[in-house]
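Submission checklist for the structure archive. All mandatory fields must be present; incomplete records are returned to the submitter.

[x] Identifier: Antirestriction protein
[x] Organism: Asticcacaulis biprosthecium C19
[x] Residue count: 300
[x] Sequence attached
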Amino acid sequence: MNTALDAIIDTIIIELDKGVAPWRQPWANGARPGFPLRSTGEAFSGMNAILLSMLQATRGFGSAYWLTFNQAKDLGGNVRKGEKASPAILYKTRTIEGEAEDKGDDRVLRFLKTYSVFNADQIDGLPELFKPSTAPTDAMEPLAQDIAGIMANFPVPVTHGGNMACYVVAEDIIRMPPREAFANDEYYVTTLLHEFGHATGAKSRLDRFAVYEGREDYAREELVAELTSHLTSLHLGINPSQSVFQDHIAYLGYWAELLKDRPNELLKAAGKAQLACDMILKYRHGGQSLEDLSTLPLAG
């Protein structure tokens, strides 16, 4: 794996060892940068969205935009001297003619490379569009429409009661503690989205559970659900809750051990989480297709 990416994953492992989910970083100083965006306004996805949103929070960036050095230059901007670049991932394929086993067909290799990006906060001279908004915002503003829409339209009922947050596969139902059991709305919503993340794995949906055997597979699924909650929260403009629901805390150390041995597991989980996030967001507007959703403005 690339050295720059290794450094980021090492940081994630250190935080997990401390009992902290590093992607659950509340935005600094009331900033609400939202979902990480390319220079074109297109949203990053998967692992890039997770890594860059972490950096937005931990480094206090107020802008959602990330640009390469040349993209900034083309827009009339200049990266300030001494600013540190951040890694982003580029997935690529390479076709090798006639090397597939037995058949002599072309073989397609998939690999990743990293490239350097800078947050717009690190760049002088960019157009006004790239500057962070200074307008006051309500971190839970999307709750009424988006979360209520997901709960009403996602084909899994949500019940409240008891002290467990869980998705019950056999019943295809989500169980949540009462709202008042949570310290704040962000904590409640991020936990609820975690459970919706699990619900996307049902056979009738993304079918992730068929091969799950033992603790390691369940830990992988918990990581997918946790990253799904994070990505969906970013899309909805919800400030992440730093709290992890008690039932999920036990997995933090296990994720650290898993990533020490197989850092690529984080990339795999992020890819599955992006699919789950896309499915959940489909239901916030009554089950529109993903193509319809692509025309909607992103939070932030």
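[x] Structure attached
Curator remark: Residues 287-300 have pLDDT under 50 and may be disordered. The radius of gyration is 20 Å.
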